[in-house]
Specification:
heterodimer; A: alpha/beta; four-stranded parallel sheet; 8 strands; 51% helix; globular; B: 226 residues; 7 strands; 37% helix
Chain lengths: 262, 226
Amino acid sequence: MKYEIYYDYENLSLLDSAISLCKKLNIDAIYNGGFEYFGGEWGALSDESTFLTAQAYNLSLANKNARDLLVLENLAYKNLILAKKSLDKNLPSNIESKLSAQNLAYNPQTNIISLSDLLLKNEVLNNGIFKHKKVDFENFSACIFSNDIKIKQICEKLGLKIRLQNALNFNKLQILNESLSFKYSAQMLESALDSASDFIITDSMDIFELMDKKRSKLNKSINRDLGRIPILFLPQLILCALGINDEHLLNFRFHCFVPDFL
Amino acid sequence: MNISLNVFRFNANFDYNDYYQKLDLNINEDSAITDLLQILASKLRDFDYSNDLFFKINSKIIAKNLTIGEIIGNFGNKLTIEPLSIKYAKKDLLLNNDALFGARKEILDSFTFLSEEMKLEYKKYAFLNLISPLSQDDYIGDGFAIYIKHILPHYKQHESELLSSIFGQNGILNSIKTSDLFFPNDDFIDSEIEFLTQLQFKNPNPFNYKIIRSVAKKYHKIGKAL
């Protein structure tokens, strides 16, 4: 299968580590960029027309290159799936004409695949990850902050003990009331800390931004030092399992809290 | 099947603190959760619960009468049984509905056009406010929002007053998706709240414009290519 990585946001550790992982596992994935990202949790509700146009454009770009759209990030995946359901049923004529002005066409056959789905594919899991696996995670435990249950399946296959999985995400509150977003995110991070996990795994940029970049604000919001527990993206975890410790592949340089087991 | 239970116990009339009672049971995997609750009531002294469910097993909300086999298949055979909210626990798995109702009574009383009977109708929805991880001070509550949605058709002439109670600060835009908090996942609350959120964005007011402007600012509008 051939994939095109969907990406249009500033989080290089997720993107670069995913590209490194695809190369290591011989997955044919290209990254041309040029996608549109609109709305986060609010886009579909606040401006449905712009939201659908953006997602139709993304799917048409992948269609043009005859590739499946490989999505690394939780909210981007949810938004693409939500839009595809609507667009497959009824493609608005104004969107169709905007696409055709760009020499693009929407094709309902274009597939959207999440990174966790791809990694659980037999040929990737058994002929890729297990074949090259060098590091055992048996002595480690982690929390997952995502609603994707497949991430847990992947972690357990790597021998990693999962202390808890939490699907909540308080990022959307930032637009309305920043302090609420910090307070509840801090409580969530506190639960990971208290579970004695070594690190947190997420597929959400928002969780990463809040719990890594803005940790000092989270500390202040609940008057507790939430320590240095690192936040890892799934491709970084898999690269570690494959024994990769090259910083240019792992891309922890963009993290405020780097795992010390490295 | 052998199961090992940790059951939340508390009686607001007598207990200063809550505690957990251990119990090992052998139970048929085809038995329903309501059967398990019945067994608990027979084995644990003075144990109270509601057949309407909405309590927690291993931190997940149980709203459907599943079989023990389905529960063990997901959680294993060590189960912690707790009420929907420990803060609002009245007796074991039962909640303090009066306190829940009281938390929104002031707003209900401000709707002078509502009959007392209609206000009391909120008691049927109040427990749904405990599903969101946000406290009742930070969020009007899913239960209150769904109650407003359900009474709306009866008070068409007071629509804007009713909706303003869930469209403002700490209103439904503070809602957090709850489907993953249930076992199995259940989006019945999310779909009700989504309906109301769409209604809110169709309803022009300065608060909505602020949100729409913020969304457009935070996530760039398309325009590079289209």
